[in-house]
């Protein structure tokens, strides 16, 4: 049984993974690397990690999608987003997902070590409380599906009840529109006849 904290680094740039390995291996961590989100998720089927670092901009699945998948599968696992492209939109999305933090490139050994320690030391309860404060209320998908069915039934009933009134308005409006069109054509024809004579 391995008692070392397990760290996973997901980045399409192998140098980043090697940097984490070089810094954290000497501090008693076991570091694994993945070059894509797909590779990392496959690896996570067999290994439970204590903290995951993911780059935000990668080919295929980006870091936000990776964080979302990891949090759906292992909500207690701290995920830290590595970014050289920090935008408030990405940070907002990641915060809603419950990521433990952000670390910006270029990385220094001190940054790598301190962010790893913070992610591991922050209790899960604190992360959940922070998520509840920043995230909008989450409604289960099954509940949303139920409401969409109810709304569809209500809409159909209202359309059924409104149909006779809509038909009646056509019955009333059609002769008026027809009479107006006939009168307009008659007046134009009379004006032309008068202009000719």
Summarize the structure.
The protein is of the alpha/beta class and 197 residues long.
| The CATH H-level homologous superfamily of the largest domain | Response regulator
Adjacency order of strands in the biggest sheet: 2-1-3-4-5
What's the total number of strands? 5
Our Rg estimate from Cα atoms comes to 32 Å
**Proportion of residues in helical segments:** 55-70%
CATH architecture of the largest domain: 3-Layer(aba) Sandwich
Specify the overall morphology: elongated
Structural class: alpha/beta
In the residues, how many domains can be counted?
2
CATH level 3 topology of the largest domain: Rossmann fold
Number of helices: 7
Record the SSE blueprint:
Blueprint: E1 6-10, H1 14-25, E2 30-34, H2 37-43, E3 51-55, H3 63-73, E4 79-83, H4 88-97, E5 101-104, H5 109-121, H6 124-134, H7 141-196
Parallel strand pairs: 1-2, 1-3, 3-4, 4-5
Helix pairs in contact: 3-4
Describe the structure.
By secondary structure, this protein is of the alpha/beta class. It folds into two domains: 6-134, Rossmann fold (3-Layer(aba) Sandwich), CATH 3.40.50.2300; 139-197. 61% of the residues lie in helices and 12% in strands. A five-stranded parallel β-sheet has the order 2-1-3-4-5, with helices on both faces. The radius of gyration is 32 Å and the shape is elongated.
């Amino acid at each position: 049984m391995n008692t070392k904290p397990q760290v996973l680094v997901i980045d399409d740039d192998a140098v980043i993974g090697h940097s984490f390995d070089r810094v954290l291996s000497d501090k008693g961590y076991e570091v694994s690397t993945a070059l894509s989100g797909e590779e990392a998720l496959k690896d996570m089927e067999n290994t439970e990690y204590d903290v995951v670092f993911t780059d935000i901009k990668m080919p295929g699945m980006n870091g936000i999608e990776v964080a979302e998948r990891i949090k759906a599968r292992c909500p207690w696992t701290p995920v830290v987003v590595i970014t050289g492209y920090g935008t408030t939109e990405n940070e907002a999305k990641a915060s809603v997902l419950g990521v433990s933090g952000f670390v910006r490139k270029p990385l220094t050994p001190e940054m790598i070590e301190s962010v790893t320690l913070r992610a591991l030391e922050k209790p899960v309860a604190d992360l959940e409380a922070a998520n509840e404060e920043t995230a909008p209320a989450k409604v289960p998908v099954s509940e949303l599906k139920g409401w969409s069915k109810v709304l569809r039934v209500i809409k159909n009933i209202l359309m059924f009840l409104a149909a006779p009134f809509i038909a009646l308005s056509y019955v009333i409006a059609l002769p008026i529109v027809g009479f107006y069109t006939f009168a307009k054509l008659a007046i134009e024809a009379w004006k032309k006849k008068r202009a000719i004579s």
